[in-house]
Amino acid sequence: MNWKRVCAVGEVPENTLKKFDVDGLTIVIANYGDGFRGFPPLCPHMEEPLAESGLLEGGVLTCSKHLWQWNLRTGEMVGMAEKPLLTYEIKREGDEVLANMESELVYDYDEEDEMDDDNFFAAD
Amino acid sequence: MKIKVQTKSGEFEYDCEQDEILLYAGLRHGLTLPYECATGTCGTCRARVVEGEAHLEWADAPGMAYVKQKKNELLLCRATALGNCTLRVPAKVSEGINHDVLPGYRNGEIGNVRLLTPDVMCFDLSLDQPVTFDAGQFVVLEAANVTGGRAYSMVNYRRDTETLKFVVKRKPDGKFSNWLFDRDVEGKHVDVYGPLGKATFHPDDGKNVFCLAGGSGIAGIMSIITRGCEEAYFRDHKGYVFFGVPTVRDAFFLDELSAFVDTVPNNLEVTVALSDEGVPADLEKRFPRIKFGAGFVHVVASERMAGKYDNMIAYVAGPPAMVDGALTMLVLEARLPGTDIRYDKFT
Fold first, then answer.
1. Distance between CA atoms of B117 and B251, rounded to whole angstroms?
2. Contacts of B337 in chain A (CB under 8 A)
């Protein structure tokens, strides 16, 4: 466990998302009304910056580039999304939002590229 | 040449002619290879060459921003094979293209060229072979002396037709549109590939229809409304069309849109939004079937559509900023699921 303070609760109003840098790692915090989610800054589809392309309504995050969607309450993919959204464990302590950022979450297009041999045919 | 594609849903093989675009060859064989713009800008058709050699026709294509060239990736819509190739496509692919609208190559003769505004023209293409397309689809047009193809949506709707109708806005740096505007193109021939595009209207959807278009983006919307009117779709469903242009001098198709409303005045509404000027006093008298508003088209639509989104499917077409504004409105205000918002991303 490596809990780090990301922001104050009031910095991310309901139904908005905002990008933060924490000790060299970038995380997007989304306030979906009932709680907060934290995830890497780029869409798992085509690397769109979710802090700009992301829309949040009714607990559903939409990347406006190709309308991939995720239910932030359950973590499930919605509609046209073909890859899950990676999320950091999040907790609130008083007025602060903390994320368990033991290691950086990255999609396979970054390091273990999805088109490399080992994981290309892996199930989504 | 034989092209093998390894995909997330298995391996496929198709034939590709010399100098044929890899995407176009795959699509005409019925493979659902991923694509959106089909002309090098969106990056959706990214693939990797695993074996063999391919040639990239347009190395500076905007869509190359999504491609890792050091890993031998390319855009299928801008590349040709130099021999047998094995490709990897990071998507689920099937052989499921609707064969009624299987894309293919045709040649078309330009005719009936007319200016609709100083920088918008319309023309017909008379094809050497008939084509069937869905309302909302587009084709890629290429002229012999202009590099690269350009995607244009059909204005008309007809199955098994030899005539396609288009509307084109002149773009300052648009080589193809400048060729159309600067040359006497009546009677000239262009290569045609298509139909393409998934932002299509099907009466089986059974939903009310909301269309939001900016400028020449109205083309595909005209096709959708044409099909809806011809098949009496709006007898049982609502249709809302919002068409944005800067000023009334930039507006076109107002007579045609009025005629659509005339067929189903209780269920079809057309609103023209003028972003750069107020609504001239006489406009509503000249076009009594059309409503007018001042402001960006998605803002005008947002104001007038509140509470009307029940059982709705939305179609969006236009300049990138308008499309972005419209998508934001449809997700945040209309709360439509992504599966009920149809548009082809060209950026």
1. 7
2. 69, 78-79
Lowest mean pLDDT among B17-31, B93-107, B174-188, B257-271: B93-107
Cα separation, B218 vs B235, in Å, equals: 22
pLDDT score at A110: 37
- Please enumerate in sequence order all residues whose Cβ is within 8 A of that of B184, keeping only pairs 6 or more positions apart, or say none: none
Q: Phi and psi for A60 in degrees, rounded to 5?
A: -110, 125
* B55 shares contact with chain A (CB less than 8 Å): no
pTM given for the model: 0.91
Whether the complex's predicted ipTM is more than 0.90 is answered with no
Shortest Cα distance from A100 to chain B (angstroms)?
A: 30
Q: Which of B238, B249, B299 is nearest to B273 (CA)?
A: B299
- Find chain A residues with C-beta within 8 A of B71's C-beta: 113, 115
CA distance B122 to B108: 15
Q: Positive or negative, the Cα torsion across B335, B336, B337, B338?
A: negative
Q: How far apart are CA B307 and CA B333, in angstroms?
A: 10
